[in-house]
Amino acid sequence: MSSIEEYRRQLRQQVAVERAHSNEPRWSSRLESLGAEDVLGSPQGNMTDVDNLREAVVGARLNPDPAFRAEALGQIVSKSERSTAHQLPLEILSNPQETVQVRLAALRLLELLAISSPTFPEWRPAYLESLRIAIETSELRLSAFSALISQGDRRAQELLIRGLEDSEQALVSPADALNLLSEDPHADVRDLARQIVDQPPDERTLEAAIRHLAGDPSSVDRLRALVSDRQKTITARKLAAAALNALAPESLPVPDTQRSNNIRAESADVEAAEDPVEEFVRILASRRRRPS
């Protein structure tokens, strides 16, 4: 699983966790486990729970534990008005002095708020700017780029393409750049993907480039050659087969079943003789022939 896919999986999990943990008793228990009573104490004067939490996150009574502050930030957002819940996460994400853990928590909260906040169009420019600031921190870069691309940010797209064209200007790996750009319907990097497939720097980048060629009619021969190239990884060859099946299924190099059976019968090492990609291609071909 690529780092981009892993990040998106974590974000989906975060959405589920936020919903599941939205009840007050579970949150109270979590705060206690993090030492909230020692840090927050009793409310100060007319201060509300949110005021006390905010003091522990960014105020005078700052809690030194990033895990606590990340959790507390989520609770502040859940207790805030929907129209203003974005304000503190924006402040934190834009602050390079804050810890990566707390800024990442802020980023994920902002991604959720970008979907649910009724005032998102008003604070979207500030959100994009905070993400651009986050890109300058290496540990946040991938997540920030993912959020920017999901917002259709042209500047982020340009930075990623520039990095693919010139490795000295790259802010993320070629594979991550290609995976990120695959989520942008306006990003056409097929020329770059073809170059990478012809001279791949590594297998992960090759696999990411193949995905971009699934809609490229000029890459039929290139994909067909990949499917048949046993020097490439099984994953890369299967990706090429799937792309070719979607693009030009009649061009799939369907193996000779009788020949394969003869090889199996003659080989002392059946596993070594079998090519799992050939079996994958047979399955694709059989599905095409199957009546609807």
UniProtKB/TrEMBL annotation:
Task: Cite the SUPFAM superfamilies for this sequence.
Answer: ARM repeat (SSF48371)
The organism's place on the tree of life at top rank: Bacteria
Protein family per UniProt: Belongs to the CpcE/RpcE/PecE family.
The name of this protein is HEAT repeat domain-containing protein
